[in-house]
Design brief:
The chain contains 8 helices and 10 strands. By secondary structure, the chain is an alpha/beta fold. It has one domain: Spore Coat Polysaccharide Biosynthesis Protein SpsA, Chain A. Helix 3 runs antiparallel to helix 5.
């Protein structure tokens, strides 16, 4: 199965005062560069979903505009999956500084067993650290057109394989591996953590 790594960079960063959180520096690199490095360690084919390509041109990664700009994260996932050259997209957010290649491999190793392969921690799906196959596209689009933007809303229509927190924790603490940076407080916490995680 050919898998494209998709980075979602369509958010408005409102909780960060409008400053693009992906471009903030953490541990000597911009957060999005850390994401590209981690994702690029496991997948050769990468793609960025963004409506501000000028911000991310320096990455040298192909970009695609969000087809459903008012469709929230579901619209971004749909766009990346539809544009993916492979059979599936492994989707992550642009503001996840501590992505673990080993945790990604844990998800990718189960590709082909379901339409969605996704970690679940404390009852919550990690929708921005998941593999989605092209079989998900019709169910996603139906919900986008109906304005039903909850990502897990289409899950009943597809085959979902969950990866539990115990399996993730063998490689990295889930709260670190799936951490994202939305607020100045979270950025400060991430900067302190960066010295320990490296």
């Amino acid at each position: 199965m050919r898998i494209t790594g998709v980075i979602q960079a369509g958010g408005r960063s409102t909780r960060m005062g409008g400053e693009p959180k992906a471009l903030l520096e953490l541990g000597g690199k911009r957060i999005v560069e850390r994401v590209v490095d981690a994702l690029g360690a496991v997948l050769a084919d990468l793609l960025v979903v963004t409506n501000t390509p000028e911000r991310y041109a320096f990455l040298g990664v192909p970009m695609v505009a969000d087809r459903y700009p008012d469709g929230g994260a579901l619209g971004g996932i749909f766009t990346g999956l539809d544009a993916a050259r492979g059979d599936a997209a492994f989707t992550v957010a642009c503001d996840m500084p501590f992505l673990s290649p080993d945790v990604m491999r844990l998800v990718l190793a189960r590709a082909g067993e379901a339409d969605v392969v996704i970690p679940r921690v404390d009852g919550q799906y990690e929708t921005m650290h998941a593999l989605y196959t092209k079989a998900c596209l019709p169910a996603m689009e139906t919900r986008l057109r109906a304005g039903q933007l909850k990502i897990v809303g289409f899950f009943p229509d597809v085959r979902v394989l969950e990866i539990d927190a115990v399996a993730v924790a063998r490689h990295r603490a889930p709260q670190v591996a799936f951490m994202n940076v939305n607020t100045p407080d979270e950025l400060a916490r991430a900067r302190a953590l960066a010295e320990q995680v490296e």
